[in-house]
What we know:
This protein has three helices and no strands. By secondary structure, it is mostly helical. It starts with a helix and ends with a helix.
Amino acid sequence: MASHERDKAAELMQALSVLALERTAFSSERAMMAWIRTAISLYTFGFSISKFIDYLALQETGIELSTGLRRLGIALIIMGIVALVLATTEHLKRIRRMRELGLPRESPVSLPVAASGVLLAIGIAAVVSITTGWPA
Length: 136
């Protein structure tokens, strides 16, 4: 009887451990999604600044436009890219550590990591578009 109770207690402890790891994994995904939101905000603000400068240049208002504002827009987009790369790297390290501790693999691809990859491509395309004018 005592052996049966010990087995049940061990099963319960294992289940609680897995649930704790799953809660931590969900928390990590929420943090990753917050970084994705931050990167999108940086992209949007940087791209808006650059396009507003382009709009003013097309209006030929006689206003002397410095290149500093355009550089600020590009810098904001690059900050978004760097933040997203660092956040994705940290998230993947955290998940790998949790898998070593027994976190079950739910799916082969994490949705926040996939979204991060797509957003990285969008950020790089935005920087290329602004700096080279491609596609015209």
